[in-house]
Specification:
- The chain has 114 residues and is mainly alpha-helical.
- It has one domain (3-109).
- It has helices spanning 3-35, 41-66, 70-81, 85-109.
- The chain is elongated.
Amino acid sequence: MDIKTATALRRLRLVSAPEAVSFLLLLVCSVLKRTTDFNAVPVMGAVHGILFILYVIFWADAWNRTKWSLKTAALYFVLSVLPTGGFFADRKLKREAENAVIASRARKEGIVNA
């Protein structure tokens, strides 16, 4: 894996968990808006919107660089629209990055001819 691909995956990982947290907070704020006088939906909506846009931009960059299959790319996109999906995306991306590093080291040491 080259440095640009690793960076793209790292950026996607860095935004996936905060995006999931912001989504959950937005859901809580929506409930509070309807049940109390507390209304933080405009603020949390903006925060979540920015994080979601960043997630989609970083997802597209990672898809382009990693050459994921359509199924894998779709999975990461679907995880972005599920309330806790960002946490699962973070775990899967971490595992994928670790496997890529292991494969890269193996190629450098001549263990795998790829």
